[in-house]
Specification:
mainly alpha; 176 residues
Length: 176
């Protein structure tokens, strides 16, 4: 026999553990990064805008979606898959981003190079950016484009960390 030793007033015997965990997350208000550090937030927006400059919007979304998958950032994943749909991206390609290596025919050579680079940079602590991954990207992007792709990867990884650290909830796109 199990004894209910729960002392949480928000959880009664009819409340599931999952519901209680959800309540704990939503009740644990975290800072609004944009309001608490507006100068930093604006700088990040500027960096993001500069990174995107001159890149194909579809490529931008694919990079942001892949990094958000890897970082487990539901907030950014929801936002960028919706943005990609609004820009005309197909459901088939959106479903294949997480498994792009097994669905190579859905993506162009440039997109595959960007996705590989996105994975390597996002997981940089696992062994750096392999020379072959960098060379593949350098072969299909000129120096300016490659710098912008890298900058975009840097920004989405930063945005993922902002969203995860401040407990942003998927489906609540708060862009101003």
């Amino acid at each position: 026999m199990t004894t209910n030793t729960n002392t949480n007033p928000k959880m009664n015997t009819t409340t599931s553990v999952a519901e209680a965990a959800g309540a704990a997350v939503t009740d644990n208000a975290r800072l609004d990064f944009a309001k608490s550090a507006p100068k930093v937030f604006r700088a990040l927006i500027g960096f993001d805008a500069a990174a995107r400059d001159g890149l194909d919007p579809a490529l931008v979304e694919l990079i942001q979606i892949r990094a958000s998958h890897i970082n487990h950032c539901a907030y950014c994943l929801h936002m960028h898959t919706n943005d990609a749909r609004k820009a005309g991206e197909s459901e088939d390609r959106l479903h294949m981003v997480a498994v792009w290596r097994e669905a190579r025919h859905f993506f162009t050579e440039r997109e595959r190079a960007a996705l590989a680079l996105t994975e390597a940079v996002t997981l940089v602590a696992d062994g750096g950016v392999p020379d072959d991954v960098y060379a593949q990207a350098a072969a299909v992007f000129d120096d300016r484009e490659l710098a912008h792709v890298l900058a975009l990867i840097f920004t989405i990884n930063t945005w993922n960390r902002v969203a995860l650290s401040t407990a942003k909830m998927a489906g609540t796109d708060e862009r101003r």
